[in-house]
Amino acid sequence: MAEKDSLELAYEVADRWHWFYKKGLISRRDFLKAVLVSGGAAAAPIVGACSPQPAAPTQPQAPQRPAKDTISVAFGSDLPNLDPHMHFLRFGIIFHYHVFDNLGVRDNRTLRIGPHLATSWKPISPTTWELELRKDVTFHNGDPFTAETVKFNWERITNPEQKSPQRGNHEQIAGVEIVDPYKVRVHTKSPYPIFVERLQNFQMVPEKVIKARGDAWFAENPIGTGPYKFVEWKRDRYILVERNDNYWGPKPAFKYFKYVVIPEVTTQIAELLNGNIDVMRAVPTDQVNTINNSGRARVVSQRILRTGFVGLDSKGRTVPSPFMDVRVRHAANHAVNIESYIKNLQPGGDRTPALVNPMAFGYDPAIKPHEYDPDKARFLLAQAGYPQGFEVTFNRTNASLLPNARLVFEAMQRDLEKVGIRTKFQVHESRAFTDMVSQGKGGPMYEWSWGYYSVFDADGILWDMLHSSSPFSYYENPELDRLLLEARSTLDEETRKRLYSRAQQIIRDEAPVIFMWGFHQLWAVSTAVNWMPDPDEIDKFYNAKPA
Question: What is the pTM of this model?
Fold first, then answer.
């Protein structure tokens, strides 16, 4: 271990002197001299510890950095567990894509779901889909992937006793029939138009292992069929996985992928510029120039399928809420200058006047957003019985996915206060905040964003955020419930567009949230790595390559 640490120190010192040289801060002569001196000093303990006899004279050589074998990525929080069926966190979805495989995966050129563990699929009736499966796939422990695996996974996730947070994503599944070892038929309760979309973000887990070792063991020792296999988990520090050399598909270029937990953005940036991590997400816009000018990393932008908003408790789930009055909800929307936030505090964004992201099927461009109108906001508040305004708690998370989240919400706070809505921030740890919101304790006002589980369909956000059956819904409207159910119960695309258009008009008129925007996200990527993000917001680091 001493030798490894010393060599790493030598490499680090050499890199730092090289950075000064590239910036023109020292001469080439001074750079070479510094590297030789500092490299020798770092290596001195190795000679003393390992060689009692004087070493033979050799020509001095600068240390040679070994080939990069690890891609390290910063994430704002740890995961509650490593079972892909037992939480719904975006960071977890990203991690699980590296250890587990899905039946289908999105082709980001066409934005359509393409084959993966399932090689093909087709509807053979309005409520039955037939899937052909790959025949050359094994789990990391050697267990085969078969039709039995697929049946077990669907039954596990839809079993009420399992209490999977993802059960709602598959509640339309009525049963799975095994046709042969590599073919299944999936029966749905009604026509299910987003069935194919649900083939992704549905990771396959091994039946035999879970039945033999139990859910608790598996939650800390994941076994999948994916391009990486689990090595170790140091809670609140990192998760390490190693390349699966027996993978059925293309092998990752990096031997290791390291999920590094770094809650503070400033620390993420420092670690990036020091070479300790290779990628960070949600770069603050005021740090773009610093990163780009460092010579150590670059900032890349991507439009993604995530919509941000501020939830308003119109049900009174937490406490009696001023936002139970629709006039107050409209007042809040007229009070905030969304266009200004996008222009001045964001790397860009797409207005979402009825929550639906413009990239999603069913988005209606005819729905117009609330205009910025503080006078109208004050008028509506007075009409609702709040001529002097009111004070309300605004719950937030310390690990927001929104770029410049603090600055955005502070600007929103100032705008709301101008019309009389005085907000008091309460900041919560990410995992606790997610639980709080899903349990109905997020109100009266809370920060939120939703990534649709990468379902490029209006259903991916409207059902999860606004249908009265969802644990995330702070709104209830029987007409909206009916429209959303009807839209997910027909395969006819024109009918579905019509239903979603009507649903979006209701949402705009009822204003159950402060409508914000679809994200344009920023990543910082080390110059040692070639990688670009995808619009589905699932960062696939198995596609990365050393620069």
Answer: 0.74
